């Protein structure tokens, strides 16, 4: 399975690292606020992996890391093999995931293939179906992945994109229980860009985002706003 997109130069996706970002062609969620709607809903465009490797070889010594993003990259049937080949070039690897595939996550960690994990925490458990756009968001796997990440021994972050239509003080408080004891959470400002699955959604205002930050500080050691 090939990647469907590449950002050849990013200063934003992996803090303090110059990175290349690869986008997976598949996702098991349909989050209404997703910016990669074209890929998630079925892009027919793909980039042969040999071309990606050839390009990355020209960037050895020029970039620090490769971010494997999505869609949901852990659903790619050969993602471990692909990451192994990228890792052989000497790059650090950051994985973006929704947490629904803890088996692959565990295998990547067992093989020491990833340096940083960013996992999306969509909302409180009861609002996960609405926020992800699917009836069964596989909360057992979400909770397993949260535990794996928090006990992995590598650097990580959880992150939540705040959308006015889906988040409230009550849901934020309940969400905090899911990641209680975590070390880092970013609350991200939603931007209504071209490509989102559902049009007309709104960002949470800064005053409310700051309120949510205060609530979540009772559960997570370090809570920061991103994009505000």
Characterise this structure.
Helix content is 30%, strand content 20%. By secondary structure, it is an alpha/beta fold. The chain has a domain at 5-161: Alpha-Beta Barrel (TIM Barrel), CATH 3.20.20.70. An eight-stranded mixed beta sheet has the order 1-2-3-4-5-6-7-8. α3 (79-87) links the parallel β3 (65-69) and β4 (92-97). The chain is globular and about 50 Å long. It starts with a strand and ends with a strand.
Highlighted features:
alpha/beta; TIM Barrel; eight-stranded mixed beta sheet; 8 strands
Q: Label the CATH architecture of the domain at 5-161.
A: Alpha-Beta Barrel
Report the order of strands and helices: EEHHEHEHEHHEHEHE
- Beta content comes to 15-25%
> How many E-type strands?
8
Give, in spatial order, the strands making up the sheet with the most strands. Answer: 1-2-3-4-5-6-7-8
Q: Assign the CATH topology of the domain at 5-161.
A: TIM Barrel
Largest sheet: 8 strands, mixed
Concise synopsis of the structure shown:
By secondary structure, this protein is an alpha/beta fold. It has a domain of 157 residues: Alpha-Beta Barrel (TIM Barrel).
Q: What is the strand and helix layout of this fold?
A:
Elements: E1 5-10, E2 19-23, H1 37-40, H2 49-57, E3 65-69, H3 79-87, E4 92-97, H4 102-110, E5 116-120, H5 128-132, H6 139-150, E6 155-162, H7 169-178, E7 184-189, H8 206-216, E8 222-226
Parallel strand pairs: 2-3, 3-4, 4-5, 5-6, 6-7, 7-8
Antiparallel strand pairs: 1-2
């Amino acid at each position: 399975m090939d990647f469907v997109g590449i950002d050849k130069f990013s200063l934003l996706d992996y803090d303090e690292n110059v990175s290349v970002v690869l986008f997976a062609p598949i996702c098991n969620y349909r989050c209404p606020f997703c910016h990669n709607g074209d890929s998630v809903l079925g892009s027919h465009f793909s980039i042969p992996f040999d071309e990606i490797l050839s390009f990355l070889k020209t960037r050895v010594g020029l970039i620090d890391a490769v971010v494997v993003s999505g869609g949901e990259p852990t659903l790619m049937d050969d993602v471990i093999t692909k990451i192994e080949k990228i890792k052989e070039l000497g790059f650090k690897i950051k994985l973006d995931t929704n947490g629904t595939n803890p088996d692959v996550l565990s295998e990547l960690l067992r093989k020491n293939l990833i340096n940083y994990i960013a996992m999306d925490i969509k909302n409180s458990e009861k609002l996960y179906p609405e926020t992800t756009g699917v009836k069964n968001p596989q909360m057992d796997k979400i909770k397993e992945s949260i535990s794996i990440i928090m006990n992995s021994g590598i650097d990580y972050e959880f992150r939540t994109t705040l959308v006015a239509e889906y988040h409230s003080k009550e849901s934020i408080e309940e969400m905090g229980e899911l990641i209680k004891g975590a070390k880092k959470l970013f609350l991200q400002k939603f931007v209504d860009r071209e490509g989102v699955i559902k049009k007309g959604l709104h960002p949470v205002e800064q005053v409310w985002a700051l309120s949510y930050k205060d609530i979540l500080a009772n559960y997570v050691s370090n809570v920061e706003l991103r994009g505000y």
